[in-house]
Design brief:
About 45% of the residues lie in helices and about 15% in strands. By secondary structure, it is α/β, with parallel strands linked by helices. Among the domains are: about 200 residues, no CATH class; about 80 residues, no CATH class; about 100 residues, no CATH class; about 220 residues, Tandem AAA-ATPase domain (Rossmann fold, 3-Layer(aba) Sandwich), CATH 3.40.50; about 230 residues, Rossmann fold (3-Layer(aba) Sandwich), CATH 3.40.50. Helix 39 links the parallel strand 35 and strand 36. Helix 34 crosses helix 35.
Length: about 1300
Amino acid sequence: MSASTLSSDSYLLLSTLQLQRVASTRLLQETLEAGHELASLLTRLHDAGLVRLRGEQQWSLTAEGTLALILGVRAGVCAAPDWSRVSSVTGQDLVHGVVRELCRGKAGEIPAFFSPGDLLTLLDTPDAHQLLAGSSPAWQQLLLEHFSLQLLLDAPYEERWPLASALTRCAPEVQAQGRAFEAEWRWLCGDGESSDSSLLWPALQAVASQGESGPLGERLLTALGQWQAEGHEGQWPRAFSALLWLGWLQQADPVIASEQRKKWQRSLGGQFPLLADLLSQWAGERHGQAVGLFDTLQLPVEELHWGYLWLDLCALARHGAQSAQVAMLHKWDLSHLLDAEPHHRLMAFCQDLLRLLLGEAATGAPLGQLRSSDADDDAEDEDTGEEKGAASASWLNWLQGLGRASGVRKPQERLVWLLHADGPELECKIQKLSTKGEWTAGRRVDPTLLSTQYAALLDEHDWAVVRTLPRVMGRLPRDVWAPLADHPRLFNAKGQKLQLAITAPLLQIVATEEGMSALLIPAAAARGAHIMPLAQDLWQLILTPQPLLDRLPALESIPLLPAEGMSELQRTLDGIADLPWHSQVEGLHGNAELAPWPGIPSVQLDWQDGQLAVKLVTRFDELPPQPLGKGETIIRQGIKGNHYWQRDLAAEKGQAQLLRNQLPIDLPGSEWRLEGEQALALVNALPELVDAGVVIHWHQDSARLKSLDEAALSLRIERRQDWFQVEGALALDEHQILDLRLILRQLTPGQRTVQLDEKTSLMLSDKLVERLSMLGAMLDDEQRINHKLAYPLTRLLSVITTEGDAAWQSLQQEWQQEVACPPELLTALRDYQKEGVRWMATLAHHGFGACLADDMGLGKTLQALIVLRMRQHLGPALVVVPKSVVTNWQEEVARFAPELEVVIFDNPAERERIIRNAKAGQVILINYGMLGSLAEALKARRWSSMVLDEAQQIKNAGTQRAKLLFQLDGDFRLALSGTPIENHLGELWSLFTFINPGLLGSLGEFKRRFGKAVKDPQHMALLRAVISPFILRRLKQEVLTELPDKTEIIHHISLSPEERQLYEATRREVVQQVQSADGRALMHVLSGLTRLRRLCCSPELVMPEWSQTSSKLDEAMALLEEAIDGGHRVLVFSQFVDLLSLLRARIEQKSWDYCYLDGGCSAKARQDSILRFRHEAVPLFLISLKAGGTGLNLTQADTVLHLDPWWNPAVEDQASDRAHRMGQTQPVTVYRLVCEQTVEEKIVALHDEKRALADGLLSGQSEVRGLDVESLRALLMS
């Protein structure tokens, strides 16, 4: 589309796009006058190549569009773009600067700075030479240099100088320069010599002539100096011939050539963009062309761009003759280039440089002279005399021998080809040799890039494959299969070495109603190539001959033919080379023979990746098994020859049904993938199936699978000092016994199969897996078990054949004995409490500690007191309790164990003496807060019994409190806790470190063995098996059928609009603080969550100046009023003491009677409040969760109100059970006040996860998930 054919609207769009770079359709429409059609206009511009679509409804100019705009402005058919709309056209936007100056024509100036890319794209357009006419002399000079250089790069040449007509309209000085470029062009085309010295003449011609002598490097530098002396001082030529000069110099002296190139490049600045760009690429491979060097050298001589080839070869020569980059040239067939008669000088120069790179002699000047010069130097060396030659001979021979001895280094990288049967598809990878001498899996590379980017890695086998591949990978060409079948590094997708056998399909002619039809067998071969795996390392490639593919459409429907037609068809099919064919039609005689298939119905088993693949097949000899009753009706008897088998699929389907009826698989079909018990059942049934005549066949690549159950396991245990040695065996059959160590080393939680050897795997029954997993969790690496862990082992051994020495037998008999409890001590106890006392007494008798984890309100204190009564004669007991329940323990002792003397410390000065003098029958009762001051006194003596009430107080093993208790010396250690684990498994380890030190090993060992129990049910089961003998837990609903119901209600509260606005603003502020926190995320999250929780309770807790109401306190008052009016008595709990204070103020305004308890109350005030609520008709008891959530018996209340949800539901449950416990005769209702659409709702949702952790260990469930920082952070999100 010429300038004369463009409309004014077209130029307006081009101008807009020049300024905007990218413009939307909407913006372009706004530039046109109303009513002008934009769509058709854009279509015409797009078809002319002047604009392009960039994304959806986004347009931009092409280089051709920019050229059209410039020429239009110069011709006066359109206005120049309004450059004022661009913020800067120099420096900031160089392309705008170039275009603006070109638009100004003869008045235009070259911008002070611009990069080559700002101009090269524009000048590469086909009609860019039109810019010469009408440009300023400076622009004409730059454009001439560009176009002249481009003509030489893009050779082949034309007879006429292509720029001749354009130069007639240029300035006189530019015309003179043009004649110099034309002289260079004609010389390189082969037209005589030139005396023009404005480039590098005649000095360069002298160098290139045959008659010159002397070192080539010196002569080249002399030529440059001579040119500079002729009026070009300090300058460098701006012509292609200078690139020839630099290339020759590089061959003569690479170091000097590099220095000269850098000087030349610096001298150009930005005034000759194309030459500057070429010099910058000299240091590496050229990227400007789409094809690589390999593809370039494969082109016919007539299609080569000899100027670019010269640059490519020079860049390659920089690596040195011995480099891998140059060595790759030897792998290519370049005879068509080297043997061709040169059409011009530049072609001859390229051929000679290529010969030098290949180690051959150059045939012409100046590179031929370079080789002669080398020879002369060698001759001079020979003249140095006999003595020098003799002296050097010995060490030269030694060096040569050293080179031979070293041999060829094993390559560190290699190319491999992976063939996928589906498709088929071909994949290429580069593998590296590891330090172990093994090849890595490799990284995938694009096969189309091998010849350009990875040529150094290619050998002759690779080149044979690469030459057949298309430039864009798609369907594999036919030519690729032969070199691929011969390739030594062909693998399947699994990385196994692969042999590829190429055969042709069978063509079968069958009769039809209309005449005949030709069928390919297999039918998939109609695509041209089809792969049929015969084994993992042998695949058959069925390749349909091209002549047959060409005729297939016609052969699909063959009309009835006369005799002469049948003869012609016979000749046609016989004439297709290597085609096996068979005919069912009389009159046609193929070259293939068919025989009945002699296959045997079989059950094929394949054990892979934990699954047993079962398939009904028909098998014969070494041929691949065929699916029974399905698949191809004709099978080739071998890779070679034309003999085939004919299958009867109908008969095979009947055989498949008979086999299916005999298998213990209640599933449809004839192929199955079995796991777990289904797979085990089939493996167990194999002997019976074989006896019944069923043929069982294991896949050639499958491991054999055998089964084992728990009856196969036997153990022998012997005592070694303070530990036991456990040896075990599994009887595989009457001839083969397996060592237990072999199995335990391979078995991991959740796994039920172990590998016996390369071809045999063992499938273990669920029961055996459970027994072995427990053994693995209890035994150390040497199969030893400590004395404490031996106790839970006895439970496991009840179902295992076990032998033991006398020490083990004696210990086992002792552990089986239950301690008899005096009947008079048990008379007042319930049955489950009697069971608990016997359990604790038995463990104490055998030297173990215990954790009584009964539900709140089931009488843990009472059971502990009975055990203390039974052990009082053995020495004093130490009982450590929270401060809030000291009085409760005193009362319980007086009521249920009056024989025991409770000692409390009224006088601090007497504490150490009392501890030192404690005697049998005394119970030293202290609270946790006193441990630090009494540490040395407590550690100085031995205790017959130690009891920790609310033992979750030592859940953090790192605290000084826990560390002190671990160090105390006690015969029997008892932990009482309704919630022995609340948050994580570390709490359990801490508890057991107290009650049974060493049972769970160090904390590191515990984490290594059981750290996954929170997320893995198998690990949870193992941990439960170890700890269960030492923990006893009963729930109220299981043992107290007479306990009244407990109803739990979540009472939802809607925030007022003002509260909601404040809540959201605070939440967003907290989220922002958390996101900007560095390294202190957890602290910020917890702090932010606390602010939001307090705001839900009452905005006044966060903003003391808050004057409006609190929705939660309003709702709490309404519930309390309703409860009081109904005659109920209420326990009110809160985590926040200041919230209780706000509620107290409201209660006092109502003049309601109430009791109050928080951590600031003295012991006397605390006891007074408890007694007053118990014995007087006080309707309300306000209690802080920390001060009164445990240890109190307040069954006088029948209603519990939790003002705010706490993180741990167990803490709330304990508080609720102050009322719902033994002694309660009324149904209990528990209210939890929760603000809707706030963090409180999410905390309540977390309660289920917290309860799951405890249940997973104590009651056999294991749906558990840990709570991390990210989980807490999620609570802040809306």
